[in-house]
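During the reporting period, our protein records have gained a structure token line. One record among many is quoted in full directly below:
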Amino acid sequence: QVHLEESGGGLVQAGGSLRLSCTASGDIFKVNDMAWYRQAPENERDLVATIARDGSTNYADSVKGRFTISRDNAKNMLYLQMNSLAPEDTATYYCNADVQVNRNYEFNYWGQGTQVTVSS
């Protein structure tokens, strides 16, 4: 059993910053690719940023230069530093991870989400 839990969401004014965290826990052999997604009401869930175990990253065009994804492999943690937030960044943010539960099996997991609301 693997559990992902996000934290750090909240209400912030436009131009402000937030830092999201995600902790992976449970029967973990190794955490591979990790990512942040977000979903606004009545919208699809969109990819925000990805980070591989080696630290290589990719970002959605809408957040490039404003958001930074990072991870701590020793602690099985994922972070998202969000700067220059705008109202259009308002969404529920989800942590996603590919987790090996042993040498042979890898599964994809989601967190329950954390709400980010940016006021204008």
User: Anything to note?
Assistant: The chain has no helices and eleven strands. The CA atoms of residues 48 and 60 lie 5 Å apart. The chain has a mean pLDDT of 97.
